[in-house]
């Protein structure tokens, strides 16, 4: 399908949000991703003009798709950053199984590293819009506040969304007065003493996801309670 850029916004240091208006309504689940193909690269890129991105917006917004990406020196990212409003791209297919479980009774721990926050944005907006009974704790890890995409929005959601708790950790920010530890087994057992009562969903750069899964297992969480997804190519 064709997507036309209708909005671009910087949402954190070096982090760009892009919204596409669609040529036709689309159906998807929160947590899924979409392939984006740029029709012409302005800079060379060995990986070509196609990438995949998690969808930010909830499924109720079926006439748009919003993605967010860390900018880099790749030809794809530089081109996407420079494309003007009104530019068209090719979107699709939509795929992915990193989605909410059907069972709403088991509390969930969302673990996001950096740009890994994007699929959880869609999930939280979906839960809020549908008034669903999921119990969510979001653990959001970043280097500092400046690089934390959607931080004010996530804090506002904590005030308005029932059964949602936000835990922030800034691992390299001397001005941050809150949690600064990396997520390890001790972190897990301290915040979630009954750790196997939860389902865990971890997403972000491969290093973050690998460390998060290792920490969960070291804490004693059984593998069947862990679901992960890597964001590669950044």
Helix content: 10-25%
Physical arrangement of strands within the biggest beta sheet: 4-3-6-1-2-5
- Counted by DSSP, the helix tally is 5
CA radius of gyration is 18 Å
Mean pLDDT: 96
Proportion of residues in extended strands: 25-35%
The helix/strand series, from N terminus to C terminus, equals EEEEEHEEHEHEHEHE
Strand element count: 11
Which structural class fits the helix and strand makeup? alpha/beta
The general outline is globular
Described by strand count, sense and barrel closure, the largest sheet is: 6 strands, antiparallel
Description:
The protein has a 6-stranded antiparallel sheet. The two termini are 25 Å apart. It is α/β, with parallel strands linked by helices and 234 residues long. Helix 4 crosses helix 5. Helix 3 links the parallel strand 8 (136-142) and strand 9 (164-170). Helix content is 23%, strand content 32%.
